């Protein structure tokens, strides 16, 4: 047997027999299947085994398996009249599919060009029986491909849903549309006189595991017919940068309530390899930096502050830091530049900022944008203190001594792996006093919810240090040794979001609690850099994508 492939309700077996056989049939369980066999010559086999090989040694067997599950068992009769059986092994179309069909393609079939897509469709995928009158139409709106993450195709299909949709490239390579997601396309109703039932699942996005390298045809294959729906364009290269690729994929809008299903089937299997590939290149990037002013010999805590989108908040932070004796004597401040667009302007301003406030700090540049988690990890790798405070550039202290209080809380409570302060909006209302996971049924996801949002701090139910479920990463104190043992911040999320709750779950999985210290308050302007990533609809889809990954990583906490 050369290969066996299962498409929809049909199984197709190709191979050759070393002696004349007849009545090749098939069963699934106790069900006898309808079959058709086509015989052809195999000169390649005859050249090896000689004249004892029959002229029609090769065969293609089409088996109508129907809806029955189970192994397909072949039955045939030997020349001596005895029966023999064997079990076929079903698999996807092999990479050398066309090579397997080479002996068949040597034949000339009237009405078709040998080896053409139409010829292959009629010879291989036209089983016994009368052809059905299948009314099905479709079009490809976009086709993108990348050598490391496969391909992405979207468009529409109107008609019978009980068909297998296959992309056939010009060179004869078959691609099954994997994990197709269907969604409504009401715009097609008027143009094609289609009913509501048809347009309710007319749109599609799908993933192809392999790269598509050239134009071809989109085929609909049913049990008794193969139809050409449309020609496909030459694929465009899907960008290697995850953010750029996500804008293309998530730019094909589908209903938000079903977005989790689509992301699971189509988008994440494409984006995850791109994210991993991008991060693999970080190690080759040169890390550079500079000190502004004398640095503490043995800092007790290192502040790690990523900069993305804007850097004007740095001056306000340095002004507050310079007033705090503990920070002047015991703290190391590291600004991690994570945006090439602001790199030169920020570096040019550093000398002036140091001269203006007299507060020592460092800057670090890792060569590329690494995202929130990547920038935090880079800063941690450059830090010298045993404690690390991760801080957003739009977070500002309100009084001196705040950092020393947080360090004392962490040092005196070994059961805590994280300590965070209260964060306030600029108008004085509560922005963060701990987070919880909350189910958002309208989108089918879990979100990070901030209880008591906007309330007067006097109404905060917590008055002293207390363990909470989750905490924001906008201002988060940890021990270096524990963070390194946990592997640092997870960098597998798309652009931003959920990295802080992911880290909190890592600590909790290791048996360490998250501590909230309400006696320390800082102002947080919130998401001043995240607003740079794009339009609201795209941000919502990114949030859903990250929530899906978060749910898959931490089901023991979210579904307990």
TrEMBL record:
Residues 302-424 form the Glycosyltransferase 2-like domain. It comes from the Bacteria. InterPro entries: Glyco_trans_2-like, Nucleotide-diphossugar_trans. It holds the Pfam family Glycos_transf_2. This is Glycosyltransferase family 2 protein. The lineage of its organism: Bacteria, Pseudomonadati, Pseudomonadota, Alphaproteobacteria, Rhodobacterales.
